[in-house]
Amino acid sequence: MTEAHNAPTATLLQARNLHKSYGAKPALKGVDVTLRAGEMVALLGPNGAGKSTLLQLLTGLFTPDQGSIEVLGHDMRQHPSRALAGLGVVFQQSALDMDLSVIANLHFHTDLHGMPRKLANTRINTLLETMGLADQAKAVVRSLSGGTRRKIELIRALLHEPRVLLMDEATVGLDPASRQQLLDTVRGLCQSRGMGVLWATHLIEETRHADRLMLLHQGAVRFEGSAAEFMAQSEGGDFQTEVLKQLGRGTV
């Protein structure tokens, strides 16, 4: 890693003026995203706000109609492989093979990245141990709980040691205890590894302890800043009420 990447204020991901439309329907209208080392940014918005579209652009699945994306200084259009190498992603929909073992799923990922098996095994064993899943390595994924599967997906996303982690509605279907455990784990990664995390969610309670909050509504950013800054400009209601006001609807 370079000295700049070790700096707590280093910019890891920079997206500028992102536009994306599907036919005549705009999904994103000039969205900017900055993600710095060691910080967790919560991207909050109702269904249809544009969160998934934004994550699809940031992960290179789709190309923006307008705007630019840089990951670790690499332009996504000009150097996609270099940019993508710096990303780890946990998608809303599981991408694990349910009929394979945990270790087989993780080896598939390390093989895609061309990682030597000895190094792969070292990283897999270390992360399984860290997540408290060392005894689950040979278990078939289908036999595991939803919370455990999400941990496996997080492990997979971390195996190539990305500096940026993108989480797209990663707690969907999890019970409150599993949701909190996953949040705590990711927050710990920000602090211990200096990772930058963009956490997309529609659950207001998941955003309270993020370093910054981005409110996305109808493809545009309504607010960006800390929860304290958000409340300082509010009308005096509680956090959830004020967020719902900002998003212009009764529920998220």
What keywords describe this structure?
six-stranded mixed beta sheet, alpha/beta, disordered N terminus, 9 helices, Rossmann fold, 35% helix, four-stranded antiparallel beta sheet, 252 residues
Description:
This protein has nine helices and ten strands. By secondary structure, it is α/β, with parallel strands linked by helices. It has two domains: 1-86 and 163-252, P-loop containing nucleotide triphosphate hydrolases (Rossmann fold); 95-161, no CATH class. The strands form two sheets. It has a six-stranded mixed β-sheet with strand order 6-7-8-3-9-10, with helices on both faces. The protein has a four-stranded antiparallel β-sheet with strand order 2-1-4-5. A hairpin with a 2-residue loop joins strand 4 (66-71) and strand 5.
